[in-house]
Amino acid sequence: MLSGSCLCGEVTFSLAVSPKFFYRCHCSLCRKQSGIGHNLATLVRAADFSWQSGEEAIASWIKPTGYRNDFCKPCGSSVPNLLRNLPYIWLPLGLLDDAISPLCIGDYCADDAMPWDDIPAETRHAQATESVRALLDKLEVP
Ligand SMILES: [Zn+2]
Ligand SMILES: [Zn+2]
Fold it and tell me: Which ranges carry the CENP-V/GFA domain (predicted)?
C-alpha cells in the first residue's frame, strides 16, 4: 500500500498498486498547472485508489474543453482527480510519500514545450496521445 498527501497534509490518499510508469505533458495548460515545464503524472484504476482524508478540502477548476485541475484549498497543491468520468484517477506523482522507481513512457505535447525545458529524444512525442485508452495501455493500466 502506497500513500500520498498534499503540501499541508490535509488531503491524503492510498494506492493499492505501485505505478510502473509515468508520463510528462509539456502543453501550456500542464505547464501552468505545475509551474514548471511539464506535469508528471500517471493513471491508476479508481478501484486501486482511496481517499484517506481531506476530500472536503478539494476544489476543482474545469476548463470548458474538459481540462481539469483539482487542488487542496488550504495549500493549493494539485491533487488526484477522476479522469473525465472514467473509472481512472489522474495522479500527480510528486504527491506520493513512498519512494518508487517508475519509468517514463513518454513526453507529450513536446511541440508546445518551452525552449528551456529539456526533453529526451527517445521519449519525445510532438502531440498528445491519440486517446486515453492508448495512454492507459502504455502505462500498463488494465
Ligand atoms: Zn493541502
Ligand atoms: Zn498537458
Answer: 2-117
